[in-house]
Amino acid sequence: MEQNTNEEVVLVSACLLGQPVRYNGGGCADPALVLALAETEVIPVCPEHLGGLLTPRLPAELQGSDGAAVLNGCARVCDLSGADVSAAYVAGAHAVLALAQQHGATRAVLKQNSPSCGCGQVYDGGFHNRMVAGDGVTTALLRRHGIKVESR
Ligand code: SF4
């Protein structure tokens, strides 16, 4: 990960900072990341919470495509029960983008594989731990707006 060399503001997945916001009630703290960003202004974000979802919640996966397709209305995010939760994911992505613009953030460090935060690969929609190429919904929206996204 790049070292912070100026007054930049960085969005970070809240779960990587240890906040218990994941679907299963846990976090996934990344001490090395916290250390690397110790001198940086960090904005914690959980797009799924910002979109109105609660913890705990059922796991959800992109169905047959990626976050860019969800933003285009061409694909969905569904939870394990089959419920379409796409609207919450899109709302959360726009809330994160608004925070980025409000704080002048040009970079984000987001949690890998998530249907919101994933960057470069996401679960394939079968709930079998298989991955496909693609970005999560929030990552796709941030990239559309020129924000650099890294995955952890
Ligand atoms: S991966 Fe993203 S959406 Fe999922 S719990 Fe972490 S911050 Fe929230």
Automatic annotation (TrEMBL):
InterPro entries, per the entry: 2-thiour_desulf (IPR007553)
Pfam families the UniProt entry points to: 2-thiour_desulf
PANTHER family attached to this UniProt entry: HYPOTHETICAL CYTOSOLIC PROTEIN, INNER MEMBRANE PROTEIN
Protein name: DUF523 domain-containing protein
Source organism of this protein record: Paralysiella testudinis
